[in-house]
Design a protein that fits this description.
This protein is of the alpha/beta class. The protein folds into 2 domains: 134 residues, Enolase-like, domain 1 (2-Layer Sandwich); 221 residues, Alpha-Beta Barrel (TIM Barrel), CATH 3.20.20. 34% of the residues lie in helices and 22% in strands. It has 12 helices and 17 strands. The protein has a 7-stranded parallel β-sheet with strand order 7-8-9-10-11-12-13. A 4-stranded antiparallel β-sheet has the order 4-3-2-17, sandwiched between helices. A two-stranded antiparallel ribbon has the order 1-5. The longest helix has 19 residues. It is globular. Bound molecules: 2-succinylbenzoate (OSB) and magnesium ion. The site of magnesium ion has 7 residues, from loops.
């Protein structure tokens, strides 16, 4: 049984250590929407909305998500007696289209609350089977191939097990080739285009095909499957879909169409943990590897990603870097750390998300707050 008595929305402002550039824009200052839910007997749990500041990744933003949670998610979730967190996402789908990141922020907090109340880790609650996960780094677009090589070399030396290079037309083949040359043929490299190409401009992707990449992520439009299937026929390198996969149904479509061979699961993008697990299971049944993506999360969202990545078919290192990569000081205690071999420990011995939210720090960086409860 799960009841949610109140929901506190907070916007916090965190400055990235360095600007992060993808093909569709640059982020320096993160505006992060945190959700704190209150269950029975005062139990509390946290969720994080992964919507960005502007709609350059998906259609949602922190501001649209705030409205969606306040006006449509909260009234459905508050005060109802749920059999468990798995009932929430299907209920949020009834006559309520889209807004996956808004829905996920609350749904994922509910999973964390349920784990907390059962005294088990979020990882265990989700079906996780690992007590540590291997991770990689996502490197933003740099000003020159030489600058990128330096970052990539440092990342490999630090222990990261996958190096993802953000690309766009004009910053692609020369950049990736320089890294491949500098780091050698064994370095685990991949590229992510965030929709920057079309079938007409895909020649540079064919050049990337000779560079031994693990995969090329989301080269074409954010909502496309058919053209990705066309492109996959032209490439040896597996296509990995990110933006295009918004549900388990879309994952089945990808497989049926041959639009990709790997999926980057971001729980926010797909409406939460229930759909993430469903995508994981569909992919496992078809021999499709998955990995956990990132959205420059604070330590709260990172906790959710770490737990999800402990499921068995997360066989590729995720975009789950330690706290130090993003922030001078994270909002959780302990911060997320990675050892020299690229492992992050899953806090399987602790109930819930396994890290404490530093209330004082959160208070310091809060710029807006709204408490929603049943009248
Ligand atoms: O496409 O994976 C992406 C960040 C913002 C928007 C889109 C993406 C990303 C990342 C960041 O690659 C990965 C991370 O959180 O470290
Ligand atoms: Mg991506």
């Amino acid at each position: 049984m799960l009841r949610i008595a109140s929901l506190t929305l907070r916007e916090i402002s965190l400055t990235l250590k360095e600007p992060f550039q993808i093909s569709s824009g640059t982020t320096t200052q993160r505006r992060i929407l945190l959700v704190e839910i209150e269950g029975a007997a005062g139990a509390r749990a946290w969720g994080e909305c992964t919507a960005g500041e502007i709609p350059n990744y998906g259609p949602e933003t922190i501001d649209t998500a705030w409205i969606a949670i306040r006006d449509w998610v909260a009234p459905r979730v508050l005060g109802h007696t749920w059999g468990g967190p798995e009932e929430i996402q299907p209920a949020l789908e009834i006559n309520f289209r889209g807004h996956n990141m808004a829905k996920a922020a609350v749904e994922m907090a509910a999973w964390a609350l349920a784990a907390e109340m059962e005294g088990i880790s979020l990882s265990e609650k989700l079906g996780g089977t690992r007590d540590r996960i291997r991770v990689g780094i996502s490197l933003g677009i740099q000003k020159s191939p030489a600058a990128l090589v330096e970052k990539a070399r440092a990342a490999l030396d630090r222990g990261y097990r996958k190096i993802k290079i953000k690309i766009k037309p004009g910053a692609d083949v020369a950049y990736v080739r320089a890294v491949r040359k500098a780091l050698g043929s064994d370095a685990p490299l991949m590229a992510d285009a965030n929709n920057a190409y079309t079938l007409e401009t895909a020649e540079s992707l064919e050049e990337l095909d000779d560079l031994g990449l693990m995969m090329i992520e989301q080269p074409l439009a954010w909502d496309d499957l058919l053209r990705h299937a066309e492109l996959q026929k032209r490439l040896q390198t597996p296509i990995c879909l990110d933006e295009s996969i918004t549900s388990a149904d879309r994952a089945e479509d990808m497989i049926a169409l041959g639009a990709g061979k790997i999926i980057n699961i971001k729980p926010g993008r797909v409406g939460g943990f229930l759909q993430s697990i469903a995508i994981h299971d569909v992919c496992a049944a078809h021999g499709i590897p998955v990995w956990c993506g990132g959205m420059l999360e604070s330590g709260v969202g990172r906790a959710h990603n770490v737990a999800l990545a402990s499921l068995p078919n997360f066989t590729v290192p995720g975009d789950i870097s330690p706290s130090e990569r993003y922030w001078d000081e994270d909002i959780v205690d302990p911060e997320w750390t990675m050892d020299r071999e690229g492992w992050i420990e899953v806090p399987v011995e602790k109930p819930g998300i396994g890290v404490a939210v530093d209330q004082e720090h959160v208070e310091d960086v809060t710029v807006r707050r709204e408490i929603i409860r049943l009248q």
